[in-house]
Amino acid sequence: MNKLRPLWSNLRSSLWFLPSLIVAASVLIAVALIETDSSLSDRWLAKWPRLFGAGAAGARGMLSTIAGSMISVVGVTFSMTLVALAMASTQYTSRVLQNFMRSRLTQAVLGIFAGIFTYCLIVLRTIRGGDEGALVFVPHLAVFFGFVLAVLGVGVLIFFIHHVASSIQASSIIASVAHETILAIDRLFPKHLGHGPGDTADDHAPNLLIERKWQAVPARKSGYIQNVDNAALLRRARELKTVVRMEYGVGEFVVENTALLSLALDNPPSPETMTALQAMFGTNRHRTVEQDAAFGIRQLVDVALKALSPGINDTTTAVTCVDYLTTILARLATQLIPSSHRYENGELRVIAKGPSFQSLLSDAFDQIRESAKGNVAVMLRMLAALQTIASLTTSPGRRQSLRDHVQCIAELAARTIESPQDRGRFEHELARVLEALESVPAQGDVSS
Fold first, then answer.
1. 3-class SS at 351?
2. How far is 136 from 336, CA to CA, in rounded Å?
3. Does some domain include residue 95?
4. Quick check: is 132 in a domain?
5. Which end of the chain is more exposed for a tag (fewer CB within 10 A), N or C?
């Protein structure tokens, strides 16, 4: 079941999945209303002649007009979506395009328009005017519902125009990426994770592993590792009575036929074992955020770097990225990140590769800091961000990492801020942040 979850997740996020469901639903509705029409008495429908009194020619004309209009609107909708994707890729980064493609709202709008078009075609096929020797049949109820769908489509088009105008704004894109990353952090690092033998900052392998022979399990194809079935990996290591060492973690690029993981065995594993272990790693052409919180941070950093580039020089967008990176790292500061060494009944079973607080902190701020030379606004906001994160953790290791980043920003400011007034304002803020870092907040500690 766990093997099917990544496949199901990719299927649901594909652009065609939700529209296909809506089109299928429109077919079922059309068939159901046509069957209902055929069983209803004309005397019952005659009570509302203004609603259900259209003849065969009038019904055909109206449904033909609706169908033609909807297929034109589908083209307009696709064009608007492509323009939004092009603008987002040029202005921000191509890595945020996945968020547009996975948007349930965009998929639903495309599905609604395509569904109305399909509905009208099916109802049109059943209308008979008696000119071909057949009995006259006009599904009045289905025709009226087609009119209702047309009115609904106009409202959806107006709403979608507003949605596209809002979704391509920098704040909307950045907030969406940050929200998805926070959800991934909450899913990967639950707050109440228990302490096991390996849940410590000391991740050095026992000395006995140094003397063991390691048998490599090659990767089946090249690509980015999107997900790993950790439970199955631990279970397989227990069955083999050995230690499994991951050579690549989620979000890293693996090359076909290179070592994906290694087993502490004297003899090479069987082909069946290698196939089972390879199936526990989901590899694809791009990264996703589901098990890769670092990729969400990477997207925000890319937007900030693009904003700080000389060609764009958008300090406001860069500051917004720093603000949402602060939100992500503030959530991460309160989470217990498990050790890379996974134990079961006191026995080391898996040596995993995963992120740490320090690595994610560096991913978030290192490149932005280097691109913010002389930009006082961004450097001041980064100082405030580090102070905010520090107020949420008492871990000595995490607070030391925050101090190191503050010191790096101070060194950058000393080299690049030329104005004495700006330098004085920065030094005043720096002193306040350093003072705050020296005072430990009164709250429970978490593992570093």
1. strand
2. 72
3. yes
4. yes
5. N
